[in-house]
Design a protein that fits this description.
- The protein is mostly helical and 105 residues long.
- It has five helices and two strands.
- The protein has a domain of 54 residues.
- The protein has a two-stranded antiparallel ribbon.
- It is flat, with a radius of gyration of 24 Å.
- The termini are far apart.
Length: 105
């Protein structure tokens, strides 16, 4: 007889909020260097840690990193551009040469 089976992981969940060690690693810095640079980084718009948990948002860090090399306007436009570049036709229109619904006999 074996002991109780541990719950199996169904899928991996990557956290967005991470401790300072992982935020530092995202910038390829040691924790000591990250803590040394953090006040200046925050002055430059680096996302501050959550006031309750002290965790840093990785998505906000990535957005900050990207924004250093592009204008803020182009960043905003890139995030808003979620529509397809050309109209999407319905499947039936494709089959019927763009003439609308497929006629059934």
């Amino acid at each position: 007889m074996t002991g109780p089976r541990q719950a199996e992981i169904r899928y991996r969940v990557d956290p967005r909020d991470v401790p300072p060690e992982k935020a530092a690693r995202r910038l390829h810095l040691t924790l000591a260097r990250f803590n040394e640079l953090l006040p200046n980084l925050i002055k430059r718009g680096f996302p501050e840690p959550d006031p309750d948990t002290g965790m840093f948002d990785l998505d906000a860090i990535d957005l900050w990193r990207k924004s250093r090399h592009r204008s803020a306007q182009s960043l905003a436009l890139a995030e808003q551009n979620t529509q397809p570049s050309r109209p999407v036709r319905r499947f039936g229109e494709k089959l019927n040469g763009g003439q609308g619904e497929v006629q059934r006999a």
